[in-house]
Write a structure and sequence with these properties.
By secondary structure, the chain is of the alpha+beta class. The chain contains ten helices and twelve strands. The chain has two domains: 182 residues, Jelly Rolls; 90 residues, Arc Repressor Mutant, subunit A, CATH 1.10.10.
Length: 298
């Protein structure tokens, strides 16, 4: 990319593939740790570009048309971003943010970047916001509403300059960010309820055989999203959580009942006593029988 500084508050990049110009990125610095970037591109071939940010940021990406892929240092996979969706991710100081343009796709995006400390201060008093803020570098996405598209188009086309222009851009940008973040908080609240209900169901039916397909259907989401939400809310994948609950329940039975090892294995959902014993040994470092004996020794 070729960078052009247009004053202290405006920078422009020309995106080139070999010697051909395939797009532009214009970034306005509004002050108070906030900037807006507007990018447009079209290339006959896929190409990548990157930028290194000098501080930790909350990045809001609004895809107005087309698609693009983004990745940064603490995210190992490309995140595909599609038209009419908004995305939020957090990047760290000196993070290298990579951008990939897909071949023969006309792409337009509005990107609002806010200093992470300022963003946390602005949003910290929003009820239950900690669930979304705690995601760190994780991605959050939502569909862009008609009102949000109107705000994006206004920010892209606004011709006011000077103090008035800066105030208008700041106000519209913060409104767009707030609307997106508040929707994210509502989604996290809804996700928390779904995971709470599902973990309760698993605990109440721990002796059953679970399938990711059936649990995903109950939750009304894909396998991948369910596993992701389980990790966010419990620290475990779905089957890691199930195994952990089975072993905790088995431990209780070993302590407070005289059921045999085989009975306990089937009672908590293991397919055999040998499978149970091996899982318990990996969990506790000793076999179920040895664990029970140590209880009687005290």
């Amino acid at each position: 990319m070729i960078k052009k500084n247009i004053g202290t508050s405006l920078k422009k990049w020309e995106i080139k593939n070999d010697q051909n110009s395939v797009g532009t990125i214009v970034r306005k610095f509004l002050g108070k740790g906030i900037s807006i970037s507007h990018s447009k591109s079209f290339s006959m071939e896929s190409m990548e570009s990157s930028v290194v940010e000098k501080e930790s940021l909350a990045n809001f990406v609004f895809l107005l048309s087309g698609e693009l892929d983004l990745k940064h240092d603490r995210c190992s996979t490309w995140q595909n971003m599609r038209q009419s969706n908004a995305y939020l991710f957090f990047s760290e100081d000196r993070s290298n943010i990579r951008r990939r343009i897909n071949a023969q796709v006309s792409t337009e995006a509005l990107i609002i970047k806010i200093s992470r400390n300022i963003f946390h201060t602005l949003m910290s008093d929003v009820e239950d916001s900690h669930g979304l803020l705690a995601r760190g570098v994780r991605y959050f996405s939502k569909s862009i509403s008609a009102h949000d598209i109107m705000l994006c188009n206004y920010l892209v086309s606004c011709q006011y300059k000077g103090q008035i222009g800066q105030m208008i851009h700041m106000g519209r940008s913060l409104e767009l960010v707030a609307r997106t973040f508040l929707q994210g908080v509502r989604d996290v609240q809804s996700e928390s309820l779904i995971i709470l209900e599902l973990t309760g169901y698993i605990k109440d039916h721990i002796d059953q055989n679970f399938s990711l397909k059936a649990l995903s259907k109950m939750a009304g989401m894909s396998h991948t999203k369910l596993n992701t939400l389980f990790r966010v809310h419990t620290g475990f994948s779905v089957f890691e959580f199930i195994r952990q609950e089975r072993l905790l329940r088995a431990e209780t039975y070993l302590q407070y009942t005289d059921m045999s090892i085989t009975q306990i294995a089937y009672e908590v959902g293991f397919s055999s006593s040998s499978h149970f014993s091996e899982s318990f040994r990996r969990y506790r470092g000793i076999t179920p029988g040895h664990f029970r004996k140590t209880l009687f020794c005290h």
